[in-house]
Write a structure and sequence with these properties.
Helix content is about 30%, strand content about 20%. It is of the alpha/beta class and about 200 residues long. The longest helix has 19 residues. The strands form three sheets. A four-stranded parallel beta sheet has the order 1-2-3-4, covered by helices on one side. The chain has a three-stranded mixed beta sheet with strand order 5-6-7. Strands 8-10-9 form a three-stranded mixed beta sheet, with helices on one face. The chain has one domain: 4-Layer Sandwich (Purple Acid Phosphatase, chain A, domain 2), CATH 3.60.21. β5 and β6 form a beta hairpin. It is globular and about 40 Å long. It is built from five helices and ten strands; from the N terminus they run βαβαβαβββαβαβββ. The protein binds fe (ii) ion. Fe (ii) ion binds next to loops.
Length: about 200
Amino acid sequence: MPKILFIGDVVAEPGRRTLATVLPQLRDEHEPDFVVVNGENAAGGMGINPKTADEIFELGVDAITLGNHTYRHREIYSYLDGGKPIIRCANQHESNPGRGHVIVENGVGLRLGVINLIGQFGLDHEGNPWDCADRILRQIEKDCDLILVDMHAELTSEKVTTGWYLDGRRPSSAPTRTCRPPTPAYCQVEPPTSPTSE
Ligand SMILES: [Fe+2]
């Protein structure tokens, strides 16, 4: 069974420093096939910029997901369109910089699709995240061995129901909103879909 290490969210310089410290240890311990990081607050605790994104990629991270603070720093706009595996929430306006999904391949040819969604409660969004996920899945499923969904939402209920909605489509996972902890601790592991939340 392939392993995905998902870390988020990485907040500001202390978060980046901690990531650099613990990632080698986690790689040794768990030998993940892919490492994905939510970096939406990597720059100064809100948003991300090219420098901090590069710093995360230099650690060997396969993909970066984002959230409601994606567009806090203007200099990231062109970076999001630059072809690197950094994605913004797919159900934001289609004219926004960046894209909402990416497929990455590891050294042994395993292909991971990563989809970033944003919840509808309390966050700016453009359309139903489930409809959006359906559209993307139809597009990429055949090209992926496994799929990770980062559901960036305020409510635990939105995250968990998204996990249930996507259950059985493909081995996948549905985490976050990680930038603040408004929800009770909740963890559910129900193969093949594994929703997790803070
Ligand atoms: Fe957020």
